[in-house]
Design a protein that fits this description.
By secondary structure, the chain is of the alpha+beta class. It has helices at 6-22, 32-38, 54-61, 112-118, 141-147, 156-162, 165-176, 183-192, 201-213, 217-226, 230-233, 238-241, 250-261, 267-281, 289-295, 300-317, 324-331, 336-350, 355-364, 368-371, 379-384, 392-405, 412-422; strands spanning 27-30, 47-50, 66-67, 75-79, 86-91, 93-96, 106-109, 127-129, 134-136, 149-150, 180-181, 243-244, 247-248. Bound molecules: adenosine-5'-triphosphate and magnesium ion.
Length: 423
């Protein structure tokens, strides 16, 4: 797929509005893209809302240029030329009945104003006319955007009972924009936090991922705790994150400090920093990571990366006193770059210096033939020496490899000689 060019995506989003307008319909940008536009940020994607029905939308853009996957909810996807991405064009709609606590049972087509009222937060509830530059705001979104306030549209309690996922969205938006959360909205989340369990593990994990890859991840985690969502979405952290009469634990303060200083866009790094203090308290230690990751339906790759970071933290924090062959065997593994980011944050907070991480990073930056030179001999060579195949092979090959990495030997001949001696 061609990457989306923000400039062209925006042009296409304007064009979609003009085409609908030329065909006699009302059409406006809607929701998150309006918020981002008003904040001067590049919208991730554009949504257009219109009074045209799905059939009329398809007639305007042609069936071949549209996808009707969301038609039952009044949403038509309009495909743009390469690198413009695609735009969701939705008929103004109101949602009805939320028997599963997540999705509307039914949608009805309605006015723009009613469509605004079904949206979650005032900052997400505005429309924008890209042709005239006019904001269409039925919910006081502009004012809240100016004040930096995340506020539910309508009665917060009702809105969170309809769709529990909104509780996590509130935390994510508040943290990532560095806004504050409206008091009544926060109070409603605190009251309903336990109900977040009706949302699928995948959706919860997706929200957590988005919070944790963001630079304001520490803020998001603090807000998760304050909103009482944290012990429900991550009960495994309950002990560390619990607030007692003396305030929060020193471990939790360290955790938040690590999340604040860690420089990464990688989920595994931030997640490892988030759970490390808890893992150290668990009786099962790192073995508890797998069931946690399974519960959150994380990928195996993420789980392995998280385990790798926790497992090798001590080594990388002592890199200067580690024999090079031991450090080298860690640095040639796939998530080593992540380990440096993770280790740097942990060391900065707990050790107050990062000299060991700097040392490891220097080694990690060695040219590939120095960081990981091809082995001088293999098992085949041992067989040729007449050494019977067996468990001894690993010990010999490892010792020869150590000698090579420590530059005590430099050639295959020296390696064979050493192997013979060891045998
Ligand atoms: P981002 O894309 O950065 O996550 P967004 O606000 O654009 O933020 P989307 O999931 O793309 O979020 O949704 C687009 C718009 O649809 C939102 O701005 C909001 O108006 C509405 N919306 C999305 N999810 C919900 C929800 N769970 N409840 C009510 N309205 C929602
Ligand atoms: Mg969006």
């Amino acid at each position: 797929m061609t990457p989306v060019d923000p400039q062209r995506a925006r042009q296409f989003a304007v064009e979609v509005v003009s085409r609908l307008r030329e065909a006699g319909f009302t059409a406006l940008w809607a929701g998150g893209c309006v918020r981002d536009h008003l904040l001067g940020l590049e919208p991730k994607d554009y949504d257009v809302a219109t009074d045209a029905t799905p059939e009329q939308i398809r007639a305007v853009f042609g069936r071949r240029r549209t996808l009707a996957i969301g038609q039952a909810f009044g949403v038509i996807t309009v495909l743009g030329p390469p690198s413009t991405g695609q735009i969701e064009v939705a008929t103004f709609r109101s949602d009805h009945g939320y028997s599963d606590g997540r999705h509307p049972d039914q949608v009805k087509f309605c006015s723009a104003q009613e469509d605004a009222l079904r949206r979650d937060f005032t900052i997400n509830g505005m429309f924008f006319d890209p042709l005239s530059g006019q904001v269409v705001d039925y919910v006081g979104g502009q004012e809240d955007l100016r004040r930096g306030l995340v506020r539910a549209i309508g009665y917060p309690t009702a809105r969170f009972s309809e769709d529990k996922l909104r509780m996590l969205r509130a935390v994510r938006f508040t943290a990532s924009f560095q806004f504050t959360i409206d008091a009544a909205t926060l109070a409603a989340i605190q009251r309903h936090a336990a109900e977040i369990v009706v949302v699928s593990a995948e959706r919860i994990a997706a929200e957590l991922q988005r919070m944790l890859v963001h630079q304001h991840r520490a803020c998001a985690v603090e807000l998760l705790a304050e909103s009482k969502l944290l012990p429900v979405v991550l009960p495994e952290l309950q002990d560390v994150a619990a607030v007692s009469a003396g305030g929060v634990s020193a471990d939790w303060q360290d955790t938040l400090a690590m999340l604040r200083v860690v420089e990464t866009t990688r989920f595994a790094v931030a997640f490892a920093a988030l759970i490390r203090a808890a893992v150290r308290r668990w009786p099962q230690g790192i073995r508890g990571v797998e069931p946690l990751c399974q519960r959150l339906k994380l990928t195996v790759a993420d789980r392995k990366a998280i385990e790798f970071l926790l497992e090798h933290e001590a080594a990388v924090r002592a890199a200067r006193s580690l024999p090079w062959p031991r450090l080298q065997r860690i640095l040639i593994q796939n998530p080593a770059a992540d380990l440096l980011d993770y280790g740097r944050a942990v060391a900065a907070v707990l050790d107050g210096h990062t000299a060991d991480i700097d040392h490891a990073a220097e080694r990690f930056a060695l040219p590939p033939d120095q960081l990981n030179p091809p082995p001088l001999i293999t098992g085949d060579d041992l067989r040729r020496l007449g050494i019977p195949t067996g468990p001894a092979y690993k010990g010999i090959l490892d010792a020869v490899r150590d000698a090579q990495l420590e530059q005590r030997i430099h050639s295959a001949e020296e390696a064979l000689e050493l192997a013979r001696q060891l045998w």
